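#data-curation
PF: Archiving a pair of folding outputs for the training set. Convention for this channel: one message per protein, sequence first, structure tokens after, nothing in between. First:
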Amino acid sequence: KDHISQKRKQDIDWKKGRSFCLVYYPGEERYNKIKEIFNLYFSDNALNPTATPSLVQLEAEALSMCSDLFNGGDDARGTITSGGTESIMLAMKTAKRWAKRERPNVKQPEMVICASAHPAFMKGCDHFDIKGVFVKPGADGRADVEAMRAAVNENTIMMVASAPSYPYGLVDPIEDLGKVALDKDILFHVDACIGGFMLPFVKELGYDIPKWDFSVPGVTSISADMHKYGYSSKGSSVVIYRNAQLRKHQFSVYTGWIGGIYGSPTITGTRPGGTIAGAWAAFTAIGKDGYMEMAEATMKATDTIKKGVESIDELEIIGDPDMTILAFKSAKINIFELADELNKRGWHFERQQNPPSIHLTINYIHRDFAEEFLADLRAAVEVVKKFKISQITNKIQIGIVKGLSMVLPEGSIAKIQSKQKASTSNENSAAMYGMMGALADTGDLKEIVVDFLDKINSLESK
């Protein structure tokens, strides 16, 4: 235990609000209640429902609560999954199987997806041999309804939108897109992985949230992560369908196996009992009043941070975020240099590209740390504004890469990069992100990322 505790000192201190991604913390009391129920099912496997009827009941109750929250009605059906990616991929698998039965003339299934949607849809396209038709968002950063409509053709089986999109926290025009789905007679999936357990409560608090759930005609499935703003244990998500007939396309059943009849509702076989129990525990331990209280506190922290960012001349928030996610960019300073300075002060978040920006996912824990973050943000901006040799080096490096990318053969830059020492630290990464931007259209960036993933996940990693 002491050995592990020592190792964990290298990790982000999310209990002290230092992380704006990855972890969602409801406070120690709620956290411990959820963990207690999770631990009761630590070793249980929901693969065979006849062996764990209590888990069947817990999952049914949790899904019923989700359906009510998303206005699913009595006919809605769902499944608890291992995370948002599995929820999304199950919806995609369902769409392909639905099309095989309902659209037999489709030879190469296509999905029309707003380009701001989560990369899990790209992964699903790879796995299920579906052609992804990615449509650029409109000028406001939200899905362009007419462009999405124009992208639908005879091979389209499903359309995808977000509530909200992860990069900027913007809810797509779901109502208008639902009309397109009905007009074209295709399935329509709303990815609410990050917003599903925040938007309903934010709306009830009086914020102007557009319709996005099953109350919108045309929406046929929704994905939502309980391990995000549901504050359940990792990894826990749901995929909900408008009716049972749609969900049946999700299941895998094999009747000829010599080991017996095998049926599985999800992509995984083993289904950790703790995940299902943890989801149920989160709903019951927190309750509606608890979620409302946390949503209100989180929105107040978000408003504080938004106003703080807007008060800094060098920074600009992208779009008009609908809930507790935002990103900000700069036309006056190097945003990745700013990210480095904030990392040195102990803050952890994600960097984005196109345009270069800093991404913040604000959750309940940040109610106590918003002002502290803003103080460090202002100080970091002042540091970056000063003349620094690293900024010159960064510009020179990017210039060299751009020049080399025009004259060197494909793969050369990736080979150059592979000779450099890989680092998992976020500090002093501005030059690296600048180089990635320069390589974005050369075909070498994917190879660099694959090499990085291979190295960081190698047996030699410490």
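PF: Second:
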Amino acid sequence: MRTHTGFGVEELQRISESFEGKRPEEVLRWAFQTFGNKVGLASSFGGASGAVILDMAAKITSDVNVFYLDTDFLFPETYELIKESSQRYGITPVAYKSDLTPDEQSAKHGAALWSRDPDLCCDLRKVQPNRKAMAGLDAWITGIRRDQNLGRKVVGIVEWDEKFGLVKVNPVAHWGKKEVWDYILANNVPYNALLDQGYKSIGCTYCTSPVGGDADDRDGRWVGTDKTECGLHT
């Protein structure tokens, strides 16, 4: 099967395998050279991996198309990092929001939807806005890693994203926490302050809790449920 990007699924798998053991910067250079202005870099401005990728990308090209999903429920520390990163890298991250304001969502679906139907809340505030962000793109870059949880154990460095209909590039999929934090410290990369306060994965205020210790990177999200993904990477 050949996709609209010109790549076949099996071809993407071969490309992905060729990047195993190589530096994420090589993956990013390939993505920028291959897709040009048709590739977007998605950042939550919450995770350490995303901070690393943004720093690498900004060193490779001055024309990085960075976007984020503003759920209207992000932490103040997240907005602060967006501001700091914008100044540091000379970028203007584009925010994509739900078609519903928080008040409109409450009126339509009831108050505190995240506590009663978190999947629907994530769909409204993250998945649907992400579809808007994908419009006109041939590829997107994410910060997901295989060691973050069992559900991400087999992600490719480059793969076809059936859900959104474009190529998905995961430059640090094969990295672990040590490589990520070694890079952050060596390059003085700005990251979300909550990562120093027991948070492992930072999303919305109502669905993110500090866990500390040696918890997995996705622990602390939707505590008390078996939900570990918002729907973007499933």
